[in-house]
Design a protein that fits this description.
- The complex is a heterodimer.
- Chain A contains 18 helices and six strands.
- Chain A is mostly helical.
- In chain A, the strands form three sheets. In chain A, strands 1-3 form a two-stranded antiparallel ribbon.
- In chain A, helix 7 packs across helix 12 and helix 12 packs antiparallel against helix 14.
- The longest helix of chain A is centred in the N-terminal third of the chain and has 26 residues.
- Chain A is globular.
- Among the domains of chain B are: about 100 residues, Carboxypeptidase-like, regulatory domain (Immunoglobulin-like, Sandwich), CATH 2.60.40; about 120 residues, Ferric Hydroxamate Uptake Protein, Chain A, domain 1, CATH 2.170.130; about 30 residues, no CATH class.
- Chain B is about 5% helix and about 45% strand.
- Chain B is built from ten helices and 56 strands.
- Chain B has a 22-stranded antiparallel barrel. Chain B has a five-stranded mixed beta sheet with strand order 10-15-16-13-14. Chain B has a four-stranded antiparallel beta sheet with strand order 3-2-5-6, with no helix packed on it.
- In chain B, strand 37 and strand 38 form a beta hairpin.
- Chain B is globular and about 120 Å long.
- Classes of the chains: A mainly alpha, B mainly beta.
Chain lengths: ~525, ~1050
């Protein structure tokens, strides 16, 4: 009996120590259940939600470059390779950029969902809590918007992922995804701070949400959802932005360095200067004195004006412009020679000399909206990256959306005219409030004519800002517009090999209607049994 | 239970007179009354104190014979003055003159030729004849004949089923041992190491001086490894260190000095060929200015002096190795003390390895029931030199040998002497990291300074004569300081290079700490029921814990690079590293060994492991095994087969596990990081909080079940020994970082998914070919075949592709595929079909060549393809080459590997010749992408001389593409052009020794003295065109056999002496 007791005793000792040995506490990280306990932790989590915005596959590069060019604005200059394939529509469902956009959006959504689920944990000022919640709701909706507009039906995800084994996630019909986007953004619009309160373009403001809501509504009104009722909603949101009085078109510029207010917008971005009145929401990049541990690098401008001189600013000259875009500008429109450089650099490691194009040489001039030579000399310019911010939403876009929605709802009214003319006058470097015979649209355009003018004006004003492809798709003109580019190239004065090279992207894009949607990425569809592929892929 | 004790393994030359002289040790003396005939009794033990059974005890010239029992006891009647003989098959005979005493304690030495007879197994030892599982014993004496820094270097080819591979030949480069094929797809496949009974995962094997090793056993089948349960699936390597032996102090001094030399250098283009190629490649203003200015022509470069960069990078390096040990002991105390000093320079300048190491081992008998011991090992390791194949920022141009082979090898006269300048002025440093390879190598600081301390202790208590309790405890503490420093003379620290641009002169110091403790408590019960039944029971409980931490800091743009690491405080601080973690393991184990008439042997074992690496509900894993062996030679009906001296059949089955995953992989974690996870608000970058690991609370053990069938046969009085094993392992619930649907917000999570099978055949044959008084010749041979097959993966997933990211452009190109139904690590890409010929083109009126419409392209635009361009096979027939044309183009894993050793001895000379081979594996010689065709089209890059035979209009028979004819300079796939047969057979070790005769030595008061000459890697027979076929720079089961800028293995010749006092 005594032995038995001893035995039991020794076993129980063993079991006690068992817990000591086996119950290890993680010392290097915090479990999600122990996080989100303070306002500062919520803010760190919010930065994590914003993080994908600045990712390579979103606004650092892909949305305005790999997946953003090869429209009637611009095309890729060099030959097709593993790296440049997306610019020629030569991707399949394994392509890194096809995968990356999808992945980053869902990373953002997951982080937003975790933040939203834990938003009430800390005790803190309620207004600030609601502002954080609003931004998280908005970003969740915005990532869903990027997904649904690029891939069609996508899984709508409103709660944090909880189980590694739940891998079969079905697609949600597009209209349900859009409905949720509207609901989230509408909620967010009531919660986030005003632009004035925020004071920079990195956080989304109330008016930025309103502007993006106008964009979402216009997208819903167009192809493929074609919910015409959304024009009125778009109009209402755009009107709210204007009515807020928070924003205005930039009207001033530094005459010592440039000749127009329009160009000053992008110079400011190159110099990391906020211009919240014009640039309502930006993807924010910052070199932080090249402290490699703490910077957020962007690439805007590095694909523009080719130059190998590091002091001037290294760039590849990969984005080249179309004859159509060049010719669409009227006489006196200063936007043309800003967006499309009339010169190129003849550069070496130590020199960079401007050489002007022959006037007859129009095709394949270089996009030059963001020019690296305007970047500040300190910190030292880096070869492949910089701190230039990308404008996700500009006030000019809101005015053009207002004009477009007004035209669709009420026809080419004076409101529609006034909105577009403000943008045009600024392009001609004229006072935006004063009627101008040169800049203003001719009166008496029909609704259809006015619609066409809007389409062209958007290219003139917003070229290279990653909006054109989505615009062409929602207008239903993607195929016809891109088809017209092929004869444009073939009748140009480009060399034979360049003709076949540059036409390749356009002929691929129009070869199948499948290019209206991106394919569902391999890494999703290979694992997710409930996922289906988009037609044609 | 006896774990630390084992058989005698003093070097062979010590035996002889000396051996016989000190055999008898008397423990107790009793005065007795003299009678003519009296009862004499006692026990017979071996040198480590274990009782010896079945020893024949007889009186010389008499008929009386008795046999010792299982506790080694004997009893017989004898008269004073009689000579008693103790004899057995396995021990040296001993004669004893009966004196006044009645009680004798006898110690018998094992016979030299049967040293292998004792096998250390998990938590015990066994005799070879009694082993039921598959256990290999390393020929440690052979290994020790030729000095190596670390024992694992010498294991390749020594044992069947043990595959040893290393990244390259850098001193201290990681050695990977895989036993019977890789079970795990993405987790660690290295075996568990058990040093003197203390299990260790992934130890640094440089901590042990190979001269201090008594034996190395490798447990291969499940029956042998299941006693290590959750950590046994990858096999177990048991290392037993030398202990003191009873006898007077023995001082052993071993010294060797040697030189190492690079075996092969690559033939490069001469200055003339270099210029010729550059002009062909890019006849622009710039190259013309570079080479053809000042009235120079191509011919001017015919006789220009060549700079041999390879001869300046590689050097003849010295290696010295000194060991001194003192050992001895009496019945109560035994000791072994040793020290070791290794200084190995690398064959590449500014690289090397230093070790200072010492060991103390003490064993003390406190009373007949209790004994204890302690083992302390301290080592200080200093590895220096950058790994030449380490590629930073994903660019081939940062590989060390890229600069050596690719650098311009002459000075254009009038220009500066390239050897004194950091940059070649004709290279654009913003895209190409090629800089003066010698200055760079001389200035880079890469140091790993480690200290490792092991303290193990045990106590053994005999509760009853048959029941023994053993309690052990040990700690291992490893501290490593990794220093890196890049000054302005290095590619990583010079502002003008693209890798150094942002950082300038920079450096870092990182401290790693890894501490493990173990406590093991085992009970062993040994009982013979009668002469025929023997039962051994083992039960135990063990606990173990580990903690790791990493702390470090780095700084950039240092204002005073001359201060080195000490100047880090003056620079711009970078990210501070701070990581810590821990795990705990608790286990219960048991084993039953039952032996019937030494003929039927049964082993059943069981282990339950609890690990902190899993959530509470999945914490415990249970690992049973069973084995049965039939020593059929013992059967009566086998006696007439005289030629067969022993025969045994074995069959075993068991389940083992693998828990080599992150300490907290099952938990989700929140991390906060600035770069890449943060965001900028108002021009101020904020860190972002994010989920760094998507946890899986359902994680459980990776499980391997293994069936093994084996036979051990001996012929002609054990002169021929054959061991054959076949096995099949199936690993299920693979711990794989499985792809998740990206819509979950995570790309991967650790899941138990998929399965892998390994099956194979292993043969080991050892023979004594000739044995005369003066001459002896023995051979041992082993060969292993392993077939590996991926049985399943995640839902819907049919293959894993892996990249070989030698360059940025390769980071997304699959270079390997592991397909369900096929083996792991198959090379994957385009099939190379030589070059396009004129017949593939239509010639236009103006003399241009246009590729015919029915001929496939090579990834370039159809209009750009010219005769002499590289051609690939169009697998899907769509006339274009893209990812649809990928196919399997090589196998990374060998079909068979093995080794053969021949040992000769003639009088005092001994000679050992060891060959090792690998057959059937391919190597991706990625150097040839760059230096035999300049795949990425880089400017002014020198090429291998083999590229002189490229296709030209005058040399259309060449299959090597023309200048600029390599297809897209941003490649879209790997190709089979550089896949080469990596089979080789290598004269790995040769040692020739001379032992001075004892007579001679006696006068000098020396007990033994052997001088030797040993050589490693003396000759290699291979079709492989690279520097060394033993290479794998991305060493994993998914990406085997990539050679790019690897550190070649040197040929080493050492002269040594081994002196015993």
């Amino acid at each position: 009996m005594k032995r038995l007791l001893q035995f039991i005793l020794s076993i129980s000792i063993a079991l006690c120590s068992c817990n000591k040995v086996l119950d290890k506490k993680a010392s290097d990280f915090i479990e999600p259940s122990n996080y989100y306990n303070s306002e500062s932790e919520l803010n760190l989590a919010l930065a994590g939600v914003y993080d994908p915005i600045g990712n390579e596959y979103l606004y650092c590069s892909s949305l305005w470059y790999q997946l953003g060019i090869c429209t009637d604005e611009a095309f890729y200059y060099y030959s097709s390779s593993a790296y440049s394939a997306p610019m020629f529509y030569q991707y399949d469902y394994t392509n890194a950029y096809i995968v990356g956009l999808w992945q980053q959006c869902y990373i953002g959504i997951e982080r937003a969902n975790l933040l939203i689920a834990n938003i009430n944990k800390p005790s803190m000022d309620e207004t600030r809590r609601q502002a954080i919640l609003g931004e998280a709701l908005f970003l969740r909706a915005y990532y869903h918007f990027l997904l649904v507009s690029n891939y069609g039906d996508v899984p709508l995800k409103l709660t944090p992922s909880s189980n590694v084994n739940s891998v079969d996630v079905p697609r949600t019909p597009m209209k349900d995804v859009y409905a949720q986007i509207l609901q989230d953004m509408t909620d967010a619009e009531r919660k986030v701070n005003t632009a004035t309160t925020i004071g920079n373009a990195s956080h989304v403001s109330k008016t930025a949400v309103q502007g993006i809501l106008a964009r979402v509504c216009l997208t819903m009104a167009g192809f493929p959802l074609q919910d015409q009722s959304k024009y009125a909603e778009a109009l209402s949101w755009a009107n709210k932005v204007v009515a807020s009085g928070e924003h205005a078109l930039r009207a001033t510029y530094n005459a010592a360095i440039t000749n127009s207010a329009y160009s000053q917008i992008f110079i400011n971005e190159c110099q990391d200067i906020y211009d919240v009145k014009e640039c309502m929401w930006e993807a924010d990049f910052y070199l932080n004195n090249n402290n490699t541990a703490y910077f957020e690098d962007g690439k805007l401008g590095t694909m523009s004006l080719a130059c190998v001189n590091l002091d001037t600013g290294f760039a590849g000259g990969n984005i080249r412009t179309t004859i159509k875009l060049y010719n669409s500008y009227g006489n006196g429109d200063l936007r043309r020679d800003w967006n499309i450089a009339p010169f190129y650099f003849n550069s070496t490691a130590t020199t960079a000399t401007r050489v002007n194009y022959a006037t007859s040489n129009i095709i394949a001039r270089e996009s030059a909206k963001w020019r690296r030579y305007f970047e500040p000399p300190s910190p030292t310019k880096q070869q492949y990256y910089n701190g230039t911010n990308f404008p996700i939403l500009r006030y000019a876009d809101v005015l053009l959306m207002l004009a477009e929605a007004e035209n669709e709802v009420n026809g080419p009214t004076s409101l529609a005219y006034s909105s577009i003319n403000q943008v045009r006058r600024r392009g001609y470097n004229l006072p935006v409030g004063t009627a101008s015979a040169i800049a203003d649209l001719p009166a008496g355009l029909s609704k259809v004519q006015f619609r066409q003018v809007i389409m062209d004006e958007r290219a003139r004003e917003l070229c290279f800002e990653g909006l054109r492809k989505a615009d062409l798709i929602r207008w239903g003109t993607f195929n016809t517009v891109l088809s017209a580019m092929i004869p444009e190239i073939n009748t140009s004065n480009a060399s034979a090999s360049n003709k076949s090279l540059w036409a390749l992207g356009y002929s691929t894009a129009v070869s199948s209607s499948r290019y209206l949607l991106l394919p569902i990425p391999s890494l999703e569809i290979n694992v997710n049994k409930a996922m289906t592929q988009n037609p044609g892929w | 239970m006896i774990l630390l004790q084992c058989h005698s393994d003093a070097p062979r030359y010590q035996y002889g007179v000396f051996a016989k002289r000190c055999l008898i040790l008397l423990m107790l003396c009793f005065p007795i009354v003299v009678f003519a005939q009296k009862q004499v009794s006692g026990t017979v033990k071996d040198t480590s104190g274990r009782p010896l059974r079945d020893i024949t005890v007889s009186i010389k010239g008499g008929a009386k014979t008795v046999i010792t029992d299982s506790l080694g006891r004997f009893k017989l009647s004898a008269a004073k003055g009689d000579v008693v003989i103790f004899s057995s098959v396995n021990n040296e005979e001993l004669e004893l003159k009966v004196d006044d005493r009645n009680q004798y304690n006898i110690i018998l030495r094992g016979k030299v030729k049967d040293l292998d007879d004792v096998i250390v197994i998990g938590y015990g030892i066994s005799r070879k004849g009694d082993i039921t599982g598959s256990v290999s014993k390393a020929p440690i004496e052979n290994i020790q004949k030729a000095p190596v820094r670390s024992f694992d270097e010498a294991l390749a080819g020594r044992m069947a089923g043990v595959n040893v591979s290393s990244v390259d030949g850098q001193p201290g480069s990681a050695v990977n041992i895989v036993i019977r094929g890789a079970n795990s797809v993405t987790q660690d496949n290295s075996p568990l190491y058990v040093v003197d009974g203390f299990p260790m995962e992934s130890p640094n094997n440089n901590n042990i001086n190979p001269q201090d090793i008594e034996s190395i056993e490798v447990l291969k089948d499940a029956s042998a490894t299941a006693i290590y349960g959750a950590r046994g699936a990858n096999g177990v390597i048991i290392i037993t260190t030398k202990k003191g032996k009873i006898g007077p102090p023995v001082i052993n001094f071993n010294a060797s000095v040697g030189t190492q030399k690079n075996i092969k250098t690559m033939d490069l283009m001469s200055p003339y060929e270099f210029v010729k190629y550059q002009l062909e490649k890019d006849y622009t203003q710039q190259s013309a200015n570079n080479f053809l200015g000042n009235g120079k022509t191509l011919e001017s470069y015919r006789d220009i002096p060549e700079i041999d960069w390879q001869s300046k990078l590689f050097r003849q390096a010295t290696m010295s190795n000194y060991s001194l040990s003192i050992s001895g002991g009496n019945n109560y105390s035994k000791y072994y003390i040793s020290g070791n000093l290794v200084n190995q320079d690398g064959t590449i300048i500014n690289s090397g390895y230093k070790r200072y190491q010492g060991t103390i081992s003490l064993d003390q008998v406190i009373n007949p029931k209790l004994k204890t011991g302690i083992y302390i090992n301290y080592s200080s390791l200093n590895q220096s030199g950058i790994s030449p194949s380490s590629i930073t920022t994903g660019s081939v141009t940062t590989g060390t040998l890229y600069s050596v082979w690719g650098y311009q090898n002459f000075s254009v006269s009038g220009a500066t002497d390239l050897q004194d300048y950091l940059f070649d002025p004709s290279i654009d440093p913003t895209i190409d990291a090629r800089i003066n390879p010698i200055l760079n190598q001389q200035h880079l600081v890469r140091e790993n300074l480690g200290t490792n301390t092991v303290v193990n202790a045990y106590a053994e208590y005999s509760i009853m004569p048959n029941l023994k309790l053993r309690v052990t405890g040990g700690i291992t503490n490893n501290l490593t300081q990794a220093n890196q420093f890049n000054d302005t003379f290095t590619v990583y620290g010079n502002k003008h290079t693209f890798v150094g641009a942002a950082k300038g002169p920079n450096g870092s110091v990182v401290f790693y700490k890894n501490a493990t403790w173990v406590n093991e408590n085992t009970l062993t019960y040994n009982k013979s029921f009668n002469a025929n039944n023997q039962l051994t029971l083992l039960a135990g409980m063990t606990e173990s814990g580990n903690s790791t931490s990493t702390y470090g800091a780095s700084a950039t743009n240092l204002p005073n690079p001359s201060l080195g690491i000490s100047g880090l405080n003056e620079g711009t601080p970078e990210i501070i590293q701070a990581v810590s973690s821990s795990w705990g393991l608790m286990s219960f184990l048991g084993r039953i060994d039952y032996k019937l008439r030494s003929t039927y042997l049964l082993t059943l074992s069981f282990r339950a492991d609890g690990s902190s690496k899993f959530a509470e509900s999945n914490r415990w894993g249970y690992f049973p095994s069973g084995a049965f062996a039939w020593r059929f030679k013992q059967e009566k009906f086998m006696q007439r087969f005289r030629a067969l001296s022993d025969g045994k059949l074995r069959v075993s089955y068991g389940v083992t596990g693998n828990n080599r995953i992150g300490d907290f992989s099952y938990k989700s974690s929140v991390a906060v990081a600035a770069n890449s996870q943060g965001y900028t608000f108002g021009n101020s970058t904020t860190s972002g909080a994010f989920i760094s690991n998507f946890g899986n609370a359902n994680l459980k053990w990776e499980t391997t079940s293994q069936l093994n069938i084996g036979a051990d046969l001996s012929f002609f009085k054990n002169r021929i020994n054959l061991t054959a094993d076949i096995y099949r392992k199936k690993t299920t619930d693979l711990l794989i970082y499985a792809n998740l649907p990206l819509s979950l917000g995570y790309s991967q999570a650790l899941r138990n998914i998929g399965s892998v099978q390994n099956q194979g055949l292993e043969l080991t044959l050892s023979t004594i070919n000739i044995k005369t008084k003066d001459f002896k010749w023995g051979t041992s041979f082993n060969i292993s075949f392993n077939q590996n097959k991926l049985l399943s993966l995640t839902e819907n997933q049919i293959a894993i592709t892996s990249t070989a990211p030698i360059d940025y452009y390769f980071r997304n190109i699959p270079a390997y595929i592991s397909k369900v139904g096929n083996q792991l690590g198959m090379m994957y890409g385009y099939i190379w079909e030589g070059v396009y010929q004129y017949s593939d083109f239509n010639k236009t009126a103006n003399g241009n060549y246009i590729l015919k419409d029915n001929i496939t392209t090579n990834g370039n635009l159809r209009s750009a393809i010219q005769p002499g361009d590289i051609k690939f096979k169009d697998i899907n027939g769509d006339l274009t080459i893209n990812s649809n044309d990928y196919t399997i183009i090589g196998r990374g894993l060998p079909i068979h590997t093995g080794g053969i050793t021949n040992d000769f001895s003639y009088k005092n000379f001994d000679l050992s010749i060891f060959f090792q081979w690998s057959y059937g594996n391919d190597i991706m010689n990625a150097n040839r992408y760059i230096f035999e065709g300049n795949m990425f089209g880089r400017a002014n890059l020198n090429q291998f001389a083999s590229y002189e035979n490229r296709w030209t209009p005058q040399n259309t028979g060449s299959t090597l593409y023309r200048t600029n004819g390599g297809g897209p300079t941003t490649p879209t796939g790997t190709n089979s052009r550089v896949i080469e047969d990596g089979s080789y057979i290598r004269l790995k070790t040769l040692s020739l020794g001379y032992s001075f005769s004892e007579k001679l030595l006696k006068k000098a008061k020396i007990k033994g003295c052997r001088f030797y000459l040993a050589a490693q890697n003396l000759a290699t027979w291979t079709k492989y065109s690279g520097m060394d076929p033993e290479v794998s720079v991305f060493n994993s089961v998914l990406t085997p056999g990539v050679d790019y800028s690897a550190y070649p293995r040197p040929r080493t010749v050492t002269l040594g002496a081994n002196i015993t006092f």
